[in-house]
Amino acid sequence: MEWLTRFKALFVLTYTGFLGNIAVIYYLSRGLTYSEIGLATAFSALGFFLFEVPTGVVGDRASRKTSVLIGLSIYPIGILLLLFLRNFWMLLASELISVLGASFVSGSIQAWFFDNLKAEGREGEFKEMWRSIQKATVLAGSSTTIAGAFMAQLWGFEIPILLTLLLHLAMIPLAWSIPEVGFSKLETSYTRHVLHSFRELLKPEVFWLLAYLMTVTLSLSQFRKFFEPYLGDVLAKSLGTTIMGTLGILGIVEVLTRTAPRYAGIALRGRIGRMLHEVAPVAIPLFTLLSVIYPNAVFIVALGIMATLCASAFTFNFSVEFQRRIPSEKRATILSLRNMVLAIVSAVFYGVYGFVVQHLGLARARLLFALFFLAFGASFKLAQLGPLGEYLAMEEAEKG
């Protein structure tokens, strides 16, 4: 399986960059407001809603590889625009172009990998191989995130943005070199294919699993959204410096709270992994709540670590379970439809959250939304014990 090494490298590079979540501080330094950043993020999520299904159909009707190559060719344009960021409209253009490129990649890259394995009769190894790829992604992301944060602090944000651009350009020839096997071109009409794929999402065993994912995804998004300026402000006050003077520390913190615990959450098996998976819908908003009640930098970092551990254990099991429940011939489109649904819900959340933060302040907004997601997560846990138990049980999670 010579192609596996190259595919692993491609996937790792796809989710690796030097800017990371400190990008929000770059936007603020360019004069943008929280509401503008939230609105741009909302339009970005809306872009996923608009682009995901057409790009997913390209993956099912043309080929997964073609779709990925198109996406990898578009994405660098969005990164290039960040180098010249001056106002909201440039940020919006960058976000939408990047989203268009990412949409061509998102539904097809995982389907491409699964189909290659299936063609060689090794789809049963998907979970462990996917775990290996995810762990490699986390390790690569950790090093580049820390490096990029210190580069931004010492030499400005332009250096990590330029390195991210070069990294994404290098992915195009790498993707071209990977074979595509086991792909059968779909011959049904575009409309019929989309409708049939959408019906798969409405099946109870898929619909409720997707709704469960949204509970965890949005609560984690709320913990992370504007986390860097929130923590940076706490750090700046305690260290007697400015937010710009904390960028290097924030890069290390991002690894501690996002990438390192994500690695652990993916790698964990057995009782601990199942426990983190089960408590995620309630634990993550609770951690957000506690980060506001007791604004201590070390405590907030610890909460971030726990939130990512829970979310990583949950989303890894979800990804494997979701693949198991959907038909192969519609896989890329269904994955894109799933991302589309998540995108439209996220668009509403980011738009509202940005304006609430602008008017109430970051701490009060975090508190308000944390209470909302805590109530929502608790409701899902109660439903899991009752009428939705058979739909929300994840077979792969039970295996550890």
UniProtKB/TrEMBL annotation:
The lineage of its organism: Archaea, Methanobacteriati, Methanobacteriota, Thermococci, Thermococcales. Keywords: Membrane, Transmembrane, Transmembrane helix. It comes from Thermococcus siculi. The keyword Flavoprotein does not apply. This is MFS transporter permease. SUPFAM superfamilies: MFS general substrate transporter. The chain crosses the membrane at residues 7-28, 34-54, 66-85, 91-115, 136-155, 161-184, 205-223, 235-256, 276-294, 300-320, 332-353. It comes from the Archaea. InterPro entries: MFS, MFS_DHA3_Transporter, MFS_trans_sf. Gene3D superfamilies: MFS general substrate transporter like domains. One of its GO terms (molecular function) is transmembrane transporter activity. The keyword Transmembrane helix applies.
